[in-house]
Write a structure and sequence with these properties.
The protein is mostly helical and 161 residues long. The chain contains seven helices and two strands; from the N terminus they run H-H-H-H-E-E-H-H-H.
Length: 161
């Protein structure tokens, strides 16, 4: 059944993880340039918080050499969702419910619609962070290539194997 199972992994992540499935890697896969992409115009006009979030995440991803020019839209949507989550969180500081009067004149508490919107944004953020390897669980699956470096103290003391 199509659409079932785990989502496909980028080849770069498979290589960093040591190709745990041992399946052949694609030979003619597109290889976009690793970079720190500029803020897209549509996002720049939204608000300064979104721009700040985008810049921060782009910097972190670029330093890990995970970000490519093809990831621009995904990162922009992640930053936009994070900014939306923060705005909704501030809105909910006044409370998670509001009072309303029924047709019979009774007063009842209802959950604010912002709560559901905030929870959906949070769910999407968690999924997007995982796609970029920015969560503890997804990060533990990434291994660096090459010998492990020892600190000067470890070299001097001869600790480690």
């Amino acid at each position: 059944m199509p659409g079932k199972g785990f989502p496909p992994q980028p080849t770069a992540l498979k290589i960093l993880r040591g190709n745990p499935g041992k399946r052949p890697l694609p030979k003619r896969e597109a290889k976009p340039q690793v970079c720190r992409p500029p803020l897209p115009e549509w996002l720049a006009s939204v608000d300064p918080v979104t721009k700040e979030i985008f810049d921060s995440m782009a910097q972190r991803l670029a330093s890990c050499r995970v970000m490519t020019e093809n990831d621009l839209e995904s990162l922009a949507h992640l930053a936009d969702n994070e900014a939306l989550y923060r705005r909704l969180r501030i809105t909910l500081e006044t409370g998670f419910t509001y009072e309303t009067t029924t047709m019979q004149g009774d007063v009842m508490q209802r959950p604010r619609p912002e709560w559901a919107m905030m929870m959906e944004a949070k769910r999407q953020i968690a999924q997007q962070l995982q796609q970029f390897g920015m969560t503890p669980a997804s990060r533990t699956k990434v291994e660096t290539v090459g010998p492990e470096e020892k600190s000067g103290l470890e070299e001097f003391l001869g600790s480690g194997t």
